[in-house]
Write a structure and sequence with these properties.
By secondary structure, the protein is an all-alpha fold. Helix content is 66%, strand content 0%.
Amino acid sequence: PWEVQKKVAELVYSESFQQGDIERTKLHQKPIDIMDREKKDELPKMQVGFIDSICMPLYKVMAEKWPSLQPLYDGCRSNRDHWQALARQRATIDLPEQTDTR
């Protein structure tokens, strides 16, 4: 379901951003986009890209091989549509602020 998928994505990005904060402050490196808190407003667009390149092809093959898994593919497509709508609206996702990385 969308609300579960959205919450899981928020938790994953929150953790990724913490890693990116460490890379920026301690290693003085620019983190990759998915770990860059400065790009948090692009999260919906990044989710669409991840779903299109990884999730949809995987779930499609699984549903073709095992038709009982079609609901997983359908759910993935529905979640993608939600992320796409957020990306079009340029909506932001509420994530925790940067924590002290010292």
